[in-house]
Amino acid sequence: DKADIGVTGLAVMGRNLARNFAHHGYVVAVHNRTEERTNQFMDDYRDEGSFLPSGSVQDFVASLNRPRKAIIMVKAGGPTDAVIEELAAHMEPGDMIIDGGNANFADTRRREAALKERGLLFVGSGISGGEEGALNGPSIMPGGDAEAYKTLGPLLEDISAKVDGTPCCVHVGPDGAGHFVKMVHNGIEYADMQLIAESYDLLRQAQGLAPAEIADVFREWNQGELESYLIEITAEVLGHVDAETGKPFVDVVVDQAEQKGTGRWTVQSALDLGVPVTGIAEAVFSRALSGHPEQRAAARALAGPNGTAAHANLVEDVRRALYASKIVAYAQGFDQMVAASEEYGWDIDLGAMATIWRGGCIIRARFLDRIREAYDADRRLPTLLVDPTFAEALTAAQDSWRRVVATAATIGVPTPGFSSALAYYDALRRDRLPASLVQGLRDFFGAHTYRRVDRDGSFHTDWSADRSESPA
Ligand code: NDP
């Protein structure tokens, strides 16, 4: 008998995904470049279900039922291309290659087009939830041909997380749509974590709370509208004490945040699409700033504020600022999906994205139900901020939000996430923006022309002569 599905790449993600399929009753072919890992896998997990191990790619492909479905869980980039090539060489038209790694969506578009030429179906699929999710139910964001999803979808939905009985897996759209959405998911995750970090910093610097006390604050916040996986694990990490020194764990960790690239990709794509994802960008830049110890050491001598700020109810104000800034960061991420969907012809269903992020993935949160409801009520919402529920939440939060940003500036605690989110909110609200002055300057030095509020067409003022205006 042959396998229903195969997994090649048996590191932590692939291994757990293979076990997840087996736990759901599927026969799973398993393969890894270094055979030792496959043998280890069989030693450890053979009793958990039906596995068909192979030592070569050829045998692995041959062990799959047609149409073949092979999931690649190897390092993104070159290794993924190499494995695709090896699999494709042994496959037949109608077979499917699924890349579950963190591929760049542009690579996925390229790979999908190339394999289509050869009659193979390529599904670039975002998988979120880390090793725990892969084993017990991740959030899955498959792109690619709708035909492929018909046969593959039911298997993926089966092993995905479920919220209220709904699978956290849906066909996102053609070619790179799945990996794009996974990328934005990760970008939002960066923003979320930055806002959480700023909240912690303020509670510690402005309120003088100890990490263990802040852990309690987060635990309490997790009972309300902020309820989410990231808030939950923040309480865990802040409450953790280093066994060796007896100090709070956060105080023994080097304060330089690393990144593997999906946040940077999100911002790069947003720049290309012209979508202001300030929350994600500030998060990426904050990590970059943290990673320059020489500059930070040199700058330590720079002057800081002398003042202190009396701030009543700071904890509650920070909670509200966090919620409001989070709404902004998500709204921006969803805007980016709208823009990409138009640019690449993907027709992404935003409500469905909120739905599949409710469980399994790192940004899973109660909050995503509100986003789903917002898009259910109005598919063409110009921005999440104006959905009545979110508009009301922002109204309720804005005084706190402004006080928090003011306090942070007064005492010199950097809050780029909170501050930029508030600036975005205020800019979007404005009747008139100073962009009109920017247009005037551009016309002055570069004859770049401008449009008028009272007439159609483009105009240029002859700045160097009599300053008369003419149609451009
Ligand atoms: P790694 O990214 O650490 O990759 C290790 C695997 O890749 C091993 O099986 C290794 O085989 C294989 N590999 C590397 N180079 C090649 C090559 N040239 N040819 C064939 N196989 C190769 O594994 P993870 O499980 O951490 O992640 C897998 C994918 O899932 C990655 O794309 C990652 O970005 C993504 N992902 C990871 C998450 C996580 O939490 N870790 C979450 C979501 C997605 P060998 O044993 O022979 O070295």
Q: List the uncertain runs.
A: none
- Extended strand count: 12
Helicity level: 55-70%
Identify the overall geometry.
globular
Q: Would you tell me the structural class of the helices and strands?
A: alpha/beta
Structure annotation, total helices: 20
Largest sheet: 7 strands, mixed
Strand content: 5-15%
Bound molecules: NADPH dihydro-nicotinamide-adenine-dinucleotide phosphate
- Strands across the major sheet, in which order? 3-2-1-4-5-6-7
Radius of gyration: 25 Å
How many angstroms separate the termini?
Answer: 73 Å
As an assembly, this protein is: single chain
Keywords: Gluconate utilization, NADP, Oxidoreductase, Pentose shunt
GO biological process, one term: pentose-phosphate shunt
GO molecular function: NADP binding; phosphogluconate dehydrogenase (decarboxylating) activity
Pathway: Carbohydrate degradation; pentose phosphate pathway; D-ribulose 5-phosphate from D-glucose 6-phosphate (oxidative stage): step 3/3
Written overview of the protein:
Pathway: Carbohydrate degradation; pentose phosphate pathway; D-ribulose 5-phosphate from D-glucose 6-phosphate (oxidative stage): step 3/3. Homodimer. Its EC number is 1.1.1.44. It is globular, with a radius of gyration of 25 Å. The protein is 56% helix and 9% strand. It has 20 helices and 12 strands. The chain has a 7-stranded mixed sheet with strand order 3-2-1-4-5-6-7, sandwiched between helices. Helix 9 packs antiparallel against helix 10, helix 13 packs antiparallel against helix 19 and helix 15 packs across helix 18. With 472 residues, it is an alpha/beta fold. The mean pLDDT is 97. Helix 5 links the parallel strand 5 and strand 6. The termini are far apart. The site of NADPH dihydro-nicotinamide-adenine-dinucleotide phosphate has 22 residues, from helix 1, helix 4 and helix 6.
